[in-house]
Amino acid sequence: MPHAIPEPYCWDESFRVFYDQLDEEHKGLFNGIFDCAKNRGDKGKFDSLYALLAGHFKFEEGMMEKAKYSEFSAHRDIHNGFLAKVKALEIPLTDASVDFAKNWLVQHIKDVDFKYKGKL
Ligand SMILES: [Fe+2]
Ligand SMILES: [Fe+2]
Asked: For this UniProt entry, which segments traverse the membrane (predicted)?
């Protein structure tokens, strides 16, 4: 069963991974996607979201690598696959693009990020 998409689209306690910076960054990603969903033709907001995603993934990967987390490289590949898809999205964003991004983040945090809880 996929995890429910919060409405309005914002972070809540059910997404907590218990690493403060990662939780703060995840909140920022929810806000960034929310912002882009409300301003679908705004390339600047979209570019900021992309930078935020890339920065978060880099930091999260750094923590995994430092902890010698066993699923590091598979997790990094998932990040890179998503970044490539986001990069290919067209402005203005469509309903399908917005739903894709909203859904990806929710499922990724709860199904993939959650696996590193307590291990970093
Ligand atoms: Fe991740
Ligand atoms: Fe993450």
From this structure: none
Over residues 35-59, the mean pLDDT reads 98
Ligand nearest to the CA of 21: 2
Going along the chain from its start, the domains and CATH numbers come out as 17-116 (1.20.120.50)
| Segment 34-45 mean pLDDT | 98
Q: In 10 A of CB 17, how many CB atoms?
A: 19
Enumerate long-range contacts of 74-80, CB under 8 Å, 24 or more apart: 75/112, 75/116, 78/108, 78/112
Q: What percent of the chain has pLDDT over 70?
A: 99
Residue list, CB under 5 A from ion ligand 1 = 113
Tell me the pTM.
Answer: 0.97
CA neighbours closer than 13 Å in the CB half-sphere of residue 4: 6
